[in-house]
Amino acid sequence: MAVDIKCAQCPLRKTKAFSPVSAEELEFIQSFKKKTVRVAEGELVISEGASAGTLFTLFEGFAFRFKTLSNGRRQILNFLMPGDLVGLQESLSSGSPHGVEAVTEVLLCAFNHDKLWDLYRAHPNLGYDMTWLAAQEHGLIDENLLSVGQRNASESIAMLLIQHYRRAERLGLGRDNSVPFPYTQQHIADALGLSLVHTSKTLSRLKKMGLQMIKQGQLSLPNPYALTKLADYYDLPMKVTPLI
Amino acid sequence: MAVDIKCAQCPLRKTKAFSPVSAEELEFIQSFKKKTVRVAEGELVISEGASAGTLFTLFEGFAFRFKTLSNGRRQILNFLMPGDLVGLQESLSSGSPHGVEAVTEVLLCAFNHDKLWDLYRAHPNLGYDMTWLAAQEHGLIDENLLSVGQRNASESIAMLLIQHYRRAERLGLGRDNSVPFPYTQQHIADALGLSLVHTSKTLSRLKKMGLQMIKQGQLSLPNPYALTKLADYYDLPMKVTPLI
DNA sequence: CGGTAGATTGAGAGTCCTCAAGCTCTGTGG
DNA sequence: CCACAGAGCTTGAGGACTCTCAATCTACCG
Question: What DSSP designation does A139 have?
Fold first, then answer.
C-alpha cells in the first residue's frame, strides 16, 4: 500500500512530468491532504448527483468521468490519469453533475474541502495551478467533442488511442513501445458515442491496417505517423503540468 | 457605444445574475481591464492557433468557440453569452487550441494579461472565481458532449434550445416569453455534429409538434416541459455566477 | 468444468448524410 | 421601382455509416 507516502516523497512528482513547487507549497499540500482513498476496479469514486463534493487528485490507476441519460445510455466525458484533479466541479458547485468510475483499482489523495479557500488565500500560485488544471481538462474535452461531433469511427478511435498513448507516456508509463491500456471496447464505445459492435469492427480494421495493437492490457502504436494523419491530429509536445 | 462604461456602472452586474464583489475587487477589475474591444458580426475574436493569448469577458452580444479539422468540418464547442470569460485557455497555455467567432456584433472587455498574476496574488476571491468560471464552462461542454454522443437529432436540438433559453433568460434577455436567438441552422448543425439538411428537417418537425418557434431571431418555447422530457434534461435552477 | 465478462462476426434496419434543386427574404443598384 | 444576387432555409431522393439483434467464440476464474 502506498497509502502513507508523504507528498514530499510523492513518486508522481519525481517523474519530471510536473512543475516543481516550493517547500512551503509542498508543506501546504501535505496539510491540505486529508487521507488516501482506495477505490476498487469498476467502483464509483463519485456518483452522479452526489451532494457533498470532495476534491481528489488521482494518484494511481485509471478512471473516467461520465454522465448517464435515463434510458441508460452513458457518455464518458474524459479519461483520468495519475495527476488529474477529480471532483473540482463538485467542489465549486453543489451536487455532482457527473459520476467518476474507477477502471482499475485506484488510489486518490483526498483533500480537505474546508481548506480549499486557504489554498487560494495563502498560496496564489496553487490557486493559479488549480485554474490551470481546470483549463487543461477543458482542452481534453474540447478535443473529445471534436471527435464525437466531426470524426467518423476510425478517425475518432485513432484520436483516442493517440491521446491515451501520449498522456500515459508522459507519465513514464511506457515500456517497450507500449503503454497500459485498461479500457474495454465498451469504454471506447461510450467515450465516442459508438455502439460496441461498430467499435469492435473498427478496432479490428485498424489492427489489420497495422495501426494499433492491444494485447493483455497494453497498447502499442506501430505506425504513429499514419495514425495522426488518420485522426487529423497535430498537437504540440506536452508541457509540464501543475500537480496538487 | 458602451465603450466607456466603468466597471462600477457595469449594466451586466446590475442584472442580479452575478455575485456581488467588494469595492476593492471592483477597483482591481477596473484596473485589470485594458480596453473595450468591438468585433463585427461573423468576424473572429480569436483565431485558431493564435499565439498571444488575450483574456476577455464577453460584455455584449453572442459568440462561440470552435475547432476545425483540415477537411473543413467545424465543431462548435460551446456558445458564449455576456459574462462569459473568453480566452482563458490561451492565457494559460501558449497557442490557442480553438477559435472564437462573433455571431452578432460583440463587445468585449480585454484584460491586461500581465496583471493576471496580480489577480491571484492580491485578490484570492477573484482567483477562486476564475477557477469557478472555468469549471462552469467545463460543465456546459460536458453537457454538449453528452448530447452529441448519446442523444439523437431531435433530443440534442431540444437540449440546445432549452439551454440557450435558460442562459439567455437568466441574463434578463427575455421578452414576451422569448429570448434572442441569433444562430443560423448551420450553427446548430456545427454544434451538434449534424448536417445542415438534417438539422433543418428536425427543426421543422419540432416546430410542427409545437415545441419551438424561431422567428426573426427570437426563440420561444411553447411547451418547455415536453421539451425537457424529450431532451431528458433536468437541471437545478441556475445560480449566481462570478463576473470578472 | 461450468460461468461470466469481453470480443467477434453476420444480417437487416434506421438514422443521418450527400447531392441537388428550389424557395424566401433582404439588400443593392441600375 | 424592380430585377438581381446572396444568405439562409426547405424538400426530395438515394446512399452510407452506424445501430440493433443475435449467435458464437475466447479467456479467465472460482
Answer: H
